[in-house]
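Protein Entry — a single chain follows
Next Lines — sequence and tokenised fold
***
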Amino acid sequence: MPYAKQGAFYEAIREYLTSLRPRDARTERGVVRKKTVYEYQGILYEAGQLLGLPDPRHVTLAQMKALESQISGGSERTFAKKLSVIRAFLRYSGNQDALKWRVARHPTPYRGGVFLSERQVAKLHQEAARLGPLAELVISLAVDNGLRCVDIHNLTMENALEFLDFGESEILGKGRDGGKMALQTFSKYTIGPLKRYLAEREKMFERNHAPPSEFLVWKETTYFRPARMRRSDKDDMRDIAIILSERMKLRFGMHDLRRTLGHRLHRRGWPIETIAKILRHEDCGQTFRAYIGVDSCEMRAALDSLTPEMSSQSETGA
């Protein structure tokens, strides 16, 4: 591929991203965030490599359709988001075929994700404890309390102390303008992992001579000698889930653990309204659609429960 054509493709990306966030923008209001620009840049670079870095105006509809099976991603939402960004970029570049490209918001019906059984949850806790206090705490916050990665990332020392004292705290979750505060109740089963992590955290800060921090979740990096510290982010938590899923030979992600909590509570007979409050959902319908889950054993048991009644009716009719 001639360098001039590669440069033209990347230049088109730069122009598009600059249109979303002008370089002289000093505020987040009215334009996309810097973080969003970097995210879109990675998506468009990936698409460029798959397409062979052509002129964006000359990408055919067939090539766009081929991207639907080539682009990377772990969920339908991820695929839809990436394809939508690529389509918007091609339209901005003046590609007429992009106007005909229809990208479904959810390419396939929602399949409900993975719901771990009680035995698998117990094994998950054991494997997480072997990884260390950070992994043990992160997994417990996800599968026993229903916290998202962003929720865990935003936890503060004040949240941890309030949890130990009162069993609940106002935490910062996801949402516009940096997220929103909501009451989060915590499970008593997380007390042990949290105390073990706090003890390890204190030693970590002493080893690295780091100043106190208001944020809870930190980790030592292996990129520097001597070791240095940084806040644990969403990628670190996803890596923990990947390692544990490989050890357990069961494919799941961090958000599957949040869904598992909803499934576990539903099986114990708790009302959908209570589960929605625990998961901090504003709509119970969202909780019911995506966080309850029905496995094949329950479906089979439901059908088998009809057999005696149907048999007695057939004998009576005879």
